[in-house]
Specification:
Layout: H1 3-10, H2 33-43, H3 64-72, H4 77-91
Helix pairs in contact: 1-2
Length: 96
């Protein structure tokens, strides 16, 4: 069931006579509230999770050899660059 189907099903106006499931075909059984919640959770927009709000996306130019060295270490290379910059700041505090 797609997200659109779930939303459409939730917006259906009351019928003249309530639907009564005959118990024969499982595909025609009305969804329980728990199943609807689960379906909505599955149908949520996919993609990247929202960030923590702590980091900011920037464009930075790095020498090719430095970038290649960090990338060669595998996944997490951006985190390792961030850690290296943090270590530098700890060793070289800014003068206020």
């Amino acid at each position: 069931m797609s997200r659109k189907d779930v939303i459409t099903a939730l917006k259906v106006k009351e019928r003249e006579a309530p639907y009564v499931w005959d118990g024969q075909d499982e595909d025609e059984r009305p969804a329980t509230p728990e199943e609807l919640v689960h379906g909505l959770a599955l149908a949520r927009k996919r993609g990247r999770p929202s960030g923590s709000g702590i980091k900011e996306q920037v464009a930075i130019r790095l020498d090719k050899d430095i970038l290649e060295a960090f990338r060669a270490q595998g996944q997490g290379w951006q985190t390792r660059i961030n850690q290296a910059l943090r270590r530098y700041l700890a060793e070289h505090p800014t003068q206020s």
